[in-house]
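Record format v2
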Amino acid sequence: MTTIYDGHCHVASTRFIPQEFVEDVAGNVHRKLSARGAAPSVARIARGYAGQHQDHLADGLVAEMDDAGIARSVLLVPDFSLRMPGCVPPAEAARLHHEIRMRHPDRFWVYIGVDPRHGPEGVRAFAQVVDEYALDGVKLYPPCGYSPSDPGLYPYYEICAALSLPVFVHTGPTAASLDYGSAEPLRIDRAARDFPQVDFVLGHAGLTHVDTAGYLAAYRPNVYLDIGGFASSPALPDWPEHLNRLFRTGINHKIIFGTDWPLGRMGGGLKRLTDEILHGPTVFAEVSRTDQRLLLSENLLRVLAPGSRPGGYPAAAPRNGVAAVAE
Ligand SMILES: [Zn+2]
């Protein structure tokens, strides 16, 4: 049986997604629908979207993972707090995700969001929650208004280097109120060179900016691509063909499978996606079994536990402290 790990998920909860973000998404849906005739109001679309985000303890996500044959998933927790306030604060988000992980043992890794503008206090708080909850990685959301190569992030990267934590960086389009310039994949280049021991995963980069992201992945040893959102992008109605093209470009050792659930939740759920990938005629056409294993599980494991052998499982034991692990 094929082992599948999902490298890109979120808890579908209004605790972690700002109302302003929801309204931005609803605004674009309204614009698209109203161009073709009568459309629900932005407020009504936003209410419907929020209604899909009531899975606060991830029970619904785990049920879908079971159905789809996904053994374990990465939960990404973006920090929107300085740009779109209204969610639970970052430290509380970390605690709630820890509770979710305790509720569903061995089903989740958690990458916690940071923002360089929190200053030294933010770095201290990050080090503390990483230690307390044995978190697995960092999530960056540069469209909130900073570059992933911002020097204010370097203290975080030093901790990541010491603890072998990967850094997941959003790239490409997002909510209309946020900055797109800082979401260009090349913005990672400086940090990727300065921290060769830290693995950087470019979110969505297998879908947008593919040429640039592809050469970064091919030539920078510590840059990886995520394909999260592949089935939900309006630009990719032919996503099986797109993924197959991507999987034949010679960088399968650098691509990490991810769905970006709950994105596209209404379209048949995770099972529809894994069925199409594993049993459809297109996605894995002319992709070797070895490469399929890299894409579906082994690349993610290498990023989570550098140096581990394929088939190994990253340690889930609580850490004893930053200094102790850094030895
Ligand atoms: Zn996402």
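The longest helix spans residues 19-34.
Confidence is low (pLDDT under 50) at residues 308-327.
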